[in-house]
Amino acid sequence: MDPITNPYAPGAGQRPPELAGRDEQLAAFDVVLERVARGRPERSLVLTGLRGVGKTVLLNALRGTAVRKGWGTGKLEARPDQGLRRPLAGALHQAVRELGHRDADSVDHVLGVIKSFAHRDAAAGARLKDQWNPGIDAPAVRGRADSGDIEIDLVELFTDLGGLAADVGKGVAVFIDEMQDLGADDVSALCAACHELSQSGLPVIVVGAGLPHLPAVLSASKSYSERLFRYQRIDRLTREAADRALAAPAAEEDAEFEPDALAAMYDATGGYPYFIQAYGKVVWDLAPRSPITAADVAVGAPEAESELAVGFFGSRYERATPGERDYLMAMAEVAAAADPDGEAVPTADVAAALGKKPQSLSPARDSLLKKGLIYSGERGRIAFTVPHFGRYLRERG
Ligand SMILES: Nc1ncnc2c1ncn2[C@@H]1O[C@H](COP(=O)(O)OP(=O)(O)O)[C@@H](O)[C@H]1O
Ligand SMILES: [Mg+2]
């Protein structure tokens, strides 16, 4: 069929033509926004799940909801080894602009606080000209959010920001993607600041997304984090939602899938959003005409798999060193022997499979954790962050 009208969108963070199966999260977020704007106590949302399930696009959709309500919003993606100050300052600068507060002095004050918060990032003793410039024209407000203690500074920053938002009857929502990659101090300060905010009823919320062990990261940092955030596990789509993700965009182009074709698609993709988009893209291009049949899906499958092998699996596999690849392969074998659909495997079993002492494998394991290829939701167990990764490795050999 015509590749020009192909609606599917495989790719990290690519907005899907139809955001299927996420109505519950969108509705829950609506309630959160309304309650927070009215100063009611409310837990914020944190989305967790494997790679490719659609956390980033859902986070973007939630942001869209907030923007439509007139909220100020900003987004950042956490990176390992990067501090929170600069990216957060950038996100909040954006949020202040979106709020559209009319009083220039009030706006300049808050922008000045954001600036001094960001400036504190400079290594101690850095000269003024080496300071990172957040692109804010307003003068820095000395003595506010610049103590150097990130927790104190965040509370001051959010308090001033919340005041500005409350003035216009709106709120500010900060979206943090890959939240598990925040440094330990930043996580702890962020939880403390959210805790403080929820007590003062100020309309500022932090909405996060990250890998499945993110709740464990947050609760290891602050035991009360479970009361701050409502965790929403984002997972593969149900059969119904997966069908809609494929059929609705096709219908827009006056095309359709035969029922057998939809069943074959679900079989192949397991309902994982990234796989649905990848298969949809390839099968559309290869199918001679609408309706798309199960035979078309079978013809497209090898190409879809090889695209995934390069773009989705391979790009991650490439990041592992030879020693780490052995470790991944052993994980895949242990997982297959145990329960192919089970997520986590005991690290002790992986060591046994490699015939090594567990301690000697810690560097490989820690490095894979840091690279985000595996995660550990509970002590002594690890799992792939990428769905079907074990199968990919075993087939690769
Ligand atoms: N609800 C959904 N329905 C259909 N496709 C989706 C959905 N959510 C995500 N996708 C698609 O899945 C892919 C991965 O989405 P992304 O948000 O990058 O996942 P994650 O952030 O969890 O790794 C993208 O191609 C996106 O278009
Ligand atoms: Mg993402």
List the helices and strands and how they pair.
Elements: H1 23-37, E1 44-48, H2 55-68, E2 72-77, H3 85-99, H4 104-119, H5 150-167, E3 172-177, H6 184-200, E4 204-210, H7 214-221, H8 225-228, E5 229-233, H9 239-252, H10 259-269, H11 273-286, H12 294-317, H13 322-338, E6 345-346, H14 347-354, H15 362-370, E7 374-375, E8 381-384, H16 389-396
Parallel strand pairs: 1-4, 1-5, 2-3, 3-4
Antiparallel strand pairs: 6-8, 7-8
The site of adenosine-5'-diphosphate has 25 residues, from helix 2 and helix 11.
Mind explaining what this structure looks like?
The protein has 397 residues and is α/β, with parallel strands linked by helices. It has 3 domains: 23-233, P-loop containing nucleotide triphosphate hydrolases (Rossmann fold); 239-317; 322-396, Arc Repressor Mutant, subunit A. Helices cover 53% and strands 9% of the residues. The strands form 2 sheets. Strands 2-3-4-1-5 form a 5-stranded parallel β-sheet. A 3-stranded antiparallel β-sheet has the order 6-8-7. β7 and β8 (381-384) form a beta hairpin. α5 (150-167) runs parallel beside α6 and α10 (259-269) runs parallel beside α12. The longest helix is centred in the C-terminal third of the chain and has 24 residues, at 294-317. The chain is globular. Bound molecules: adenosine-5'-diphosphate and magnesium ion. Adenosine-5'-diphosphate (ADP) is lined by residues 9-14, 16, 18-22, 49, 51-57, 245, 273-274, 276-277.
